[in-house]
Every structure is written in structure tokens, then in C-alpha cells.
Write a structure and sequence with these properties.
Blueprint: H1 8-31, H2 39-55, E1 79-81, E2 91-92, H3 95-109, E3 119-125, E4 128-135, E5 138-144, E6 150-152, H4 155-158, E7 174-182, H5 185-197, H6 206-214, H7 219-223, E8 228-237, H8 245-254, E9 264-266, H9 269-281, E10 290-297, H10 300-306, E11 316-320, E12 324-337, E13 343-354, E14 357-363, H11 367-371, E15 391-396, E16 403-408, E17 432-433, E18 442-443, H12 450-460, H13 473-481, H14 488-491, H15 494-498, H16 513-525, E19 528-530, H17 531-537, H18 545-555, H19 558-567, H20 574-580, H21 587-598, H22 600-610, E20 614-616, E21 632-636, H23 644-653, E22 657-659, E23 668-671, H24 677-685, E24 688-690, H25 692-699
Parallel strand pairs: 2-11, 19-20, 21-22, 21-23, 23-24
Antiparallel strand pairs: 1-6, 3-9, 3-10, 4-5, 4-7, 7-8, 10-11, 12-13, 12-15, 13-14, 15-16, 17-18
Helix pairs in contact: 1-2, 3-9, 17-18
């Protein structure tokens, strides 16, 4: 059937069938070495799958063949929990971004612009991250990054890579070496040549080849693949490798690991950007793929002070190479409705390759962006609007979602009309309004809007929230459409309602007794849930993953949080003041949080969910011996020996709650020069007040 004539139901069914067929072909090829179809047939099926996804991007499956390299490793690889998370890096795309990175480091550390601050700069290898654990000099395990917390056990495969020593001399008792597995251009071409000779499947690029080779279920297949490894970091250590990043890298080199020869030390942003440009100039001649340069603060003591954000270290950044651009035709604009009711415009494009990826859709942000305006009403793109039929410039710059950067109005068709953004929800027909100060238009349908309900459920089962194995976006949509689940609480009664009797999950198409039992077990496993994950899973507007952790640590238990939200319902009084006093909590986020509990229908839905759960108390750091554990601290005035951000982070590590305002619950006020009303209020309330030296003396023993 022609793709342009498919209905949504037909497209959904065909994507499910293609996923199953291509997964079987992958297993036969990569695991069993017994291909069930030719490469031409396989590629034709993948192209059809991609084309259907391009027309119906919201139907793309979590197990989409477009995102799969080789066979899924879950069945053949054990899991390893990283003792120290393998985090990603924040990105810089311009020289100005690098200057801002340096300025943010200096601000956090309280360093002046003229204070020497050294960095390392190294190529960012485009490969697969790997962690190697050595005990008493012996390699005992190797794990992929995975989700950053849990990776795949690929120890047997890692032992086949020549750059990875099995045993090292004079190493710390515990040494966790981290780096990148990659394949050189020459080896990649040779591998594809051998694959072609034997009629095997060739790889699209060296990174895919490296990833597919490392994750083979048969280590002998990996041994036959020309994989390399660059070491550039570490995890757990029983003894330090040096006092600086540079010394530590040299130590890894001394243990026999390959380190990148283009790594250098730089005195500030000018030298950093200079090295970036030098590497960019020789990029094509390196013989392996890189996609930028990574800068790290050289002094490890400063790295420790700087610490981490929720997903990235403060002391490092990846300076990515310029976005790759392409021009294509904007064939249409689709409106997608998110879990908060936001109407998001998506450009439907004539397929074009951008940076090695075929792009068929791109974000258009909001209605102002389409009109050629920013959020403040100022012109962008010279005021040029975007219309269906336009020739548009598409780019990808470290983002998963491509973006439309420009439009060539000289090629605009005479029939192109200005785009009229809808003022009703395309899913439920409710009014779509734009409140003052909001950049987006939102559906007012709430719980009656199927798109919002489904998106909230998808968010609920997402990785940062409940992360229920076997219950992804596709299954949620299917169960919702069939009336099996309408809200999160229904997930935890699914077995009770559809585990027995005539209408059982195991009897549904695509399910069996084994898969149904596995899903029910996975659901049961998530009844016991950390408070922060529950808060994030509720999908409350403005309350992201980091904010959820912050809220959980402040209140500690579900009962305390629920009572506080009830007490703060009127957005005034002690409970409200305590909420907005949380450092990092603004009135907008606080209002959204309280509002979710104040709405009768939403509160009832939340309480039905919690009745099914065992919500775990927030786990705080071990603060044994800390003189400020459990105390509420407020910082005011100018701190001269550390930045406000560092002071806050250090106080929280010692178990203190940091508030932005003084109240009767405040235990300590730390006042620097210029302290004003907060110091006066603290004096009136009889709160202990310390200067910066007094504060540092208090926590010095910790």
C-alpha cells in the first residue's frame, strides 16, 4: 500500500509488524549468523519503516528499527551498576560559549578574571563509551555507559581489544579506567570490504561499526573486528592518579593505555579555542571520527569543588564542531499536543541527509518562531516568516531534534500563504489559549484531552520516572486506546483486571504468557518507588527531574509533601513561605506544584496512585558528624572566599537545607558584606548569625 494513503491505524499496525520482522532479521544475522533475507530486502524494509515514521512521527516506537544497530543486547548481556555514574557533557557551539564556560567556572570558584586557571583540551572521539575496572592490577569487568547508572557487561568482548591491557603493574588496588571504543577509517573500510566479499551487511559509519562489534554476543566476532580504545577519564580509585587531569592522563599512559596525542594544556579560553581550530583544520586527516573538543579544568581539587549538575559535570564542556546544514522543502506543518497541553508545531520536510542522518521533520518551536519573532517580539531571520512550500535550511548541532534555521524567500511559491496557528486543540477541539508571558499556546481540555492524557502516561513510564520494563510509549498508547488504562493508578491494577478471565493480556496480539507475566512483574517491582521519581513521574508543569530531587530532599517523605501542599493551597502562610524559600524554587514552579494538588480531579488521581505504592523516603547523604545536618541555612550579602553557588552546594553536602529567605524555621544566617533586610529579620527572630569566617570555622571539622 502506498504510504501516502495509510491511515493512522494501518500505519501503527505496519510499524509493529516491521519492528518484529526486522528484529528477527537482526537476531538471525548478528546472533545466529544465519541471515533470513538479503541485504537489499532488509534495506527496503528499513526504508519503508523510516518513511512511515516520517509521515507519522508520533507513532515511532520505542523499539524502532531506525534506532537499532545489530541485535538488542538485553537478552545476552548482564547489567553492571556503575559505582560512579558515567555522565554526559554540556555542549558549547561558539567561541562565546567557551568564554561563558570559563566565566561560569571563575564565578563559581570566586576567581578573578586575571587569576591563572589551566584547562586540558582533547579531541572528542565519536565512539562508544566504556568503563574498565581493575582490581589489584587485573581487569575484572568492562561495562558500556548504558543509561549512565547501569551499563551492559561486555567484559569478554573488551578483553579482545588490543589497546586494553588484561593486567597492569603498579596500579592502585582499585582502578576504573574510562574511555572510548572506536574504529579507524582505514579499518572501517577494510571491514566493510570483507563484509561485502562474504555477502554480509556493511556498516553505515565507523561509530556504528564499533558499537555493533563491541556488543556482539559472541566475543570471537568482536575479536575479528579492528576495535581501538582511547583512555581519557576514570571512575572509582583507591588512590589518586595525580593532582591534575594532565598528570592523571599521563599516569594512565604509564599503565599501558593509549591516550590521545592531541591532548594539551591551555591557559584560558583563547588557547582553548586556538587548539579547537587547529584540531578542526586537521580533522579529515586524523584517521578516526571526532565531533568536537572537550575542555576540562586541569586541577582535580578544583574539579572536586565544582562538582556536578544533575546530568553533567560543571568542570568540563564539549565544544562541538559547527552544525551541519542542508536545504529542503517544507511540505507541511503538524501540530502535536504535549502532556502540559502545549501545541508544538513540527515541520514535515522532504527527506534530506544532515550530518549522516536522514531528516524528515524538525521543530518549529512555537507560533512566534514561525512568524519570524523571538519570545520578546523581536525579529529573527530578518523578520522572514515560514510558510508551507518554502525552501528551508535545516541543521543539527548536538541536538537529537533537527531545527529550521532559515528560509529562502526568493524561492517561495506564489501560492504560499502565511501560516495560521490553530486556536483550538486538534485532538479534542477545546480552546487553545496563550496566556500573557507564555511562549506557547495550550489546550484547555485538561483530562478530557486524549493527547494530554496519553502524553502524561508516557511521561509517567519514562526512564527518569517509573521506568517500567516492557511498558513503553507504544504499549501505553495501545492500552489507553483500548480503555485499559486512563491514569497512572490503573497501571498498578492492570494484573487484577486483565491477568485472569476471558480478556487477558496474554491473549492480546503481540503478547504471550511470558511477556505478560514479565510486564506484571515489572509493574510490581515499581510499587516501591523513591519519592523523587514519584514527583517527577506526576508530570507537573515546570517540575523537572532536578527540581523533583530538590523537593524530595526538602520534604523527605510523601506524607510531609502532601500535607505541605494542602497547607499551601492558598499560596500564602507558613507552608507557602517554606516552599518558595527552598533555594532554586521560584513562585512559578511553586504555584504549579501547589496547583496540581489543589485541583480536585488531579489530586484524586494522585491519591489513587499513591494508594498503590510504597513511596520511599528521600535518601540524604551520610552527614554523620556534620554540625549543620538537618539545619536550615540562609546565605546573604557578598561572600568573599567562595561563590554563593559553591557555598550552597557545600552546605547541602553536609546535610543542611539551604533556603532563599529568612523565617522562624531558619537556624543559621551566614551574612557577608552588604547584608540587608535578611540580617535585620534574623536579628529580630533571634536567629544565629555568622560571618563567612565563622561559617567556614563551623564546617571546618566536617
Amino acid at each position: 500500500m502506498d504510504i501516502d494513503t495509510l491511515t493512522r491505524a494501518q500505519a501503527n499496525a505496519e510499524l509493529a509488524a516491521l519492528a518484529q520482522q526486522l528484529a528477527g532479521a537482526n537476531t538471525s544475522y548478528h546472533t545466529d549468523d544465519a541471515p533470513v533475507m538479503s541485504d537489499a530486502e532488509y534495506d527496503a524494509l528499513k526504508r519503508r519503516n523510516a518513511a512511515i515514521e516520517a509521515r507519522f512521527p508520533d507513532l515511532k516506537r520505542r523499539d524502532s528499527p531506525s534506532d537499532v544497530v545489530g541485535a538488542a543486547p538485553a537478552a545476552g548481556f548482564g547489567k553492571i551498576t556503575h559505582s560512579i555514574s558515567m555522565l554526559s557533557l554540556a555542549n558549547a557551539f561558539t567561541d562565546e560559549d567557551v568564554q561563558e564556560f570559563d566565566a561560569s567556572i571563575r564565578k563559581y570558584l570566586g576567581l578573578g578574571a586575571d587569576t591563572p586557571l589551566e584547562y586540558t583540551a582533547e579531541p572528542k572521539i565519536d565512539g562508544l563509551s566504556l568503563s574498565l575496572r581493575y582490581e589489584n592490577g587485573v581487569l575484572i569487568q568492562a561495562a558500556t555507559r548504558g543509561d549512565g547508572s547501569v551499563g551492559e557487561n561486555v567484559t569478554a568482548n573488551a578483553r579482545t581489544i588490543a589497546d586494553i591491557p588484561h593486567r597492569i603493574e603498579d596500579a592502585p588496588d582499585i582502578l576504573e579506567v574510562r574511555g572510548e571504543v572506536y574504529m579507524s577509517h582505514a579499518d572501517f573500510e577494510a571491514l566493510n570490504g570483507r563484509q561485502q566479499e562474504i555477502g554480509g551487511k556493511t556498516f553505515a559509519n565507523p561509530r556504528n561499526a564499533a558499537a555493533g562489534s563491541l556488543r556482539q554476543l559472541d566475543a570471537e566476532v568482536t575479536r575479528a573486528r579492528p576495535l581501538r580504545f582511547f583512555a581519557y577519564a576514570w571512575g572509582s580509585l583507591s588512590a589518586p592518579l595525580g593532582q591534575t587531569q594532565w598528570q592523571a592522563i599521563r599516569a594512565l599512559e604509564g599503565f599501558g593505555f593509549s591516550t590521545n596525542p592531541l591532548t594539551i594544556r591551555c591557559d584560558g579560553p583563547t588557547e582553548m579555542v586556538g587548539h579547537y581550530k587547529a584540531i578542526e583544520a586537521q580533522r579529515a586527516a586524523l584517521g578516526y571520527d571526532i565531533d568536537g573538543v572537550v575542555y576540562k579544568v586541569n586541577d582535580l581539587a578544583l574539579q572536586d569543588r565544582l562538582g556536578y549538575r544533575s546530568t553533567t559535570p560543571r568542570w568540563a564542556i564539549a565544544h562541538k564542531f559547527p552544525a551541519e546544514l542542508a536545504w529542503t522543502i517544507l511540505e507541511g506543518i503538524d501540530i502535536q499536543v504535549g502532556r502540559t497541553g502545549a501545541l508544538s508545531p513540527v515541520a514535515r520536510l522532504a527527506p534530506v541527509t544532515v550530518g549522516g542522518v536522514v531528516v524528515s521533520n524538525a521543530t518549529l518551536h512555537n507560533e512566534d518562531y514561525i512568524k519570524g519573532l523571538d519570545s520578546k517580539g523581536n525579529e529573527i531571520r530578518g523578520g522572514k516568516d515560514i510558510r508551507i512550500g518554502d525552501l528551508v535550511q535545516v541543521y543539527r548541532a548536538g541536538d537529537v531534534i533537527p531545527k529550521v534555521a532559515d528560509v529562502d524567500i526568493t524561492k517561495r511559491p506564489d501560492t504560499a500563504e502565511p501560516y495560521e496557528f490553530p486556536d483550538v486543540c486538534p485532538e479534542c477541539g477545546s480552546d487553545a489559549i496563550r496566556e500573557p508571558g507564555d511562549a506557547v499556546r495550550r489546550c484547555t481540555g485538561g483530562l478530557i484531552c486524549p493527547a494530554q492524557a496519553v502524553e502524561k502516561l508516557k511521561h509517567f513510564v519514562s526512564r527518569g520516572a517509573f521506568d517500567i520494563d516492557g511498558l513503553g510509549a507504544k504499549q501505553v498508547e495501545q492500552f489507553y486506546t483500548d480503555g485499559w488504562i486512563a491514569e497512572p493508578a490503573d497501571i498498578f491494577t492492570l494484573k487484577e483486571r486483565y491477568g485472569t478471565g476471558m480478556q487477558q493480556l496474554k491473549n492480546r496480539e503481540g503478547w504471550g504468557e511470558k511477556s505478560a507475566s514479565a510486564l506484571f512483574a515489572a509493574i510490581e517491582d515499581k510499587r516501591k518507588i523513591p519519592l523523587a521519581r514519584l514527583i517527577f513521574g506526576l508530570g507537573i508543569r515546570h517540575v523537572g527531574e532536578s527540581a523533583s530531587n530538590m523537593i524530595a530532599l526538602h520534604y523527605g517523605t510523601w506524607d510531609a509533601l502532601a500535607q505541605a501542599m494542602e497547607d499551601a493551597r492558598g499560596q500564602e502562610g507558613p507552608a507557602w513561605e517554606d516552599l518558595i524559600g527552598i533555594d532554586g524554587m521560584g513562585t512559578v514552579m511553586a504555584g504549579s506544584l501547589v496547583g496540581a494538588f489543589a485541583q480536585e480531579a488531579e489530586r484524586a488521581s494522585i491519591l489513587r496512585l499513591v494508594a498503590q505504592l510504597d513511596v520511599q523516603e528521600a535518601v540524604r547523604a551520610d552527614t554523620t558528624g556534620s554540625p549543620v545536618a538537618g539545619k536550615t541555612v540562609v546565605f546573604t550579602g557578598t561572600l568573599e572566599k567562595m561563590s554563593r553557588a559553591e557555598a550552597k552546594a557545600r552546605a547541602e553536602r553536609l546535610g543542611a537545607k539551604v533556603s532563599g529567605s529568612v523565617s522562624a524555621k531558619t537556624d543559621i544566617l551566614v551574612a557577608g558584606p552588604g547584608a540587608g533586610s535578611k540580617a535585620k529579620k534574623a536579628a529580630e527572630l533571634g536567629i544565629e548569625t555568622l560571618d563567612e569566617d565563622g561559617w567556614l570555622a563551623l564546617i571546618a571539622e566536617s
